[in-house]
Amino acid sequence: MRLAALRLRVADPAAVARFYAQHFGMTARPEGAQWRVGYAGRDSDLILMPGGGGFSADRGQRYWKIGITVPDLDRAVDQLRRDGLEVSVPHQFRDIGYLCHLSDPAGFPVELLQWTFQDSPPAPQQSGGPFSAARIGQITLRSGDISAETEIWIALGMRLLSVQEVPSHGFDLHFLAFTDETPPDPDLWSVANRGWLWQRPYTTLEFQHVPGAEFAAVPDLRGIEIDGLRAPQKDAAGTALIPTR
């Protein structure tokens, strides 16, 4: 099984598709009224569906972001700023990763995350630009009940790969994926697993867990497509899980 696509509803699918193609090196193609954008490989695509336009990012929402993982964050940010985009200052966020943020034209948050920590050498530069080896590394949701979330996803065949505590911000992070791989350190809380995690060729499902919190549904989140899923179902918060066609 595989996380195949994240479905988001936007006002102008073609314009948002052009944004991801032009600035992040994704391939964009129309599928009827919607557009599919993504990288070649095992990671997820984005399916941009018509009918949205009212989204405004809020920390109280179920949906948070996608994460795009890159070998050299500073090089990627330099390119985006030359393109005229507003990008936050890259920084090493605790012992999690070297990252920054921006938003797409529909207002959906995008996180850029380097394969290595800031004080480690970045991966060798890739020919073809800073996004030539990029991938959609994470789809991030928020949850107040991580046990209910992981029970459903593990039953579908996912494996928990990493747990990361962020006590200063009142949450912890849980990363799951459809994979047979095991992290290098069997202790899933280990910092040693994080650089390994950011370099996976597939998309992980990330939960920002705030114990006991309740998060508002995001109508423009239209579901997650899963290769190998036999029938439609829903996750613990009612997000549609959709078999690929």
From TrEMBL:
Q: Which residues form the VOC domain?
A: 2-115
Q: What is the lineage of its organism?
A: Bacteria, Pseudomonadati, Pseudomonadota, Alphaproteobacteria, Rhodobacterales
Protein name listed in UniProt: VOC domain-containing protein
Concerning Pfam families, the annotation shows: Glyoxalase
Q: Which domain of life is it from?
A: Bacteria
User: What is the native source organism of this protein?
Assistant: Cribrihabitans marinus
